[in-house]
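Retry 2 of 3 after timeout on previous attempt. Resubmitting structure tokens to design endpoint.
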């Protein structure tokens, strides 16, 4: 097969802009140094949640005392005393 002829630089310029522009020319000092690498963000480990200890809850004690004084007839007094204690579980 026949080889293609190389085009002159003038013809190449006329064809249009290049797909990728040239990079900036660095100075001699900058060329000698290695470019600093970007720091990669690392995920911070989360602290483990502290479990709260269950506190012992004292049961609620409810005491009701009822005292009834009756005078059914003159000179006759009846005293009735009732005491009740309930223990309620909290929760």
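Retry 2 succeeded. Sequence:
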């Amino acid at each position: 097969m026949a080889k293609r002829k190389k085009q002159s630089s003038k013809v190449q310029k006329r064809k249009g802009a290049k797909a990728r522009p040239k990079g900036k020319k660095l100075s001699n000092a900058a060329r000698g140094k290695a470019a600093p690498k970007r720091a990669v963000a690392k995920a911070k480990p989360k602290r483990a949640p502290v479990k709260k200890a269950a506190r012992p809850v004292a049961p609620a004690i409810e005491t009701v005392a009822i005292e009834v004084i009756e005078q059914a007839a003159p000179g006759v007094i009846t005293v009735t005393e009732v005491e009740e204690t309930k223990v309620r579980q909290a929760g």
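Attempt log closed. The longest helix spans residues 9-15.
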